[in-house]
Design goal:
Layout: E1 13-18, E2 30-35, E3 41-45, E4 50-53, H1 55-58, E5 64-69, E6 75-79, E7 84-86
Antiparallel strand pairs: 1-2, 2-3, 3-4, 5-6, 6-7
């Protein structure tokens, strides 16, 4: 079980997908989710339930309203304002 504290500007969870892509093999099996208000991005590796905080690397800011997944299993973060971000390896 994982608990999500609603601290500071955190307000609600936006559910995502389990990563099944090939661009970031170390993330295979991680379930990604975000906080709508503060824009933080997290993952859980099941069944170990190790929580990862990816906010510094992949957060576009608040208003994360959904996630998407393409046919290759790569993940996208969608903001309510219409922006779409793909999670990719750092250069």
């Amino acid at each position: 079980m994982v608990e999500y504290p609603h601290l500071n500007a955190a307000c609600s969870i936006t559910g995502g997908y389990v990563y099944r892509g090939s661009a970031l093999p170390e993330l295979t099996g991680d379930y990604f989710y975000a906080d709508y208000c503060d824009g933080s991005v997290h993952s859980i590796k099941y069944p170990n339930v190790n929580v990862g905080d990816w906010t510094q690397l992949v957060s576009p800011g608040g208003g994360i309203s959904s996630f998407g997944q393409d046919a290759k299993g790569e993940l996208y973060i969608l903001q309510l304002g219409g922006r779409v971000y793909r999670i990719v390896p750092s250069q």
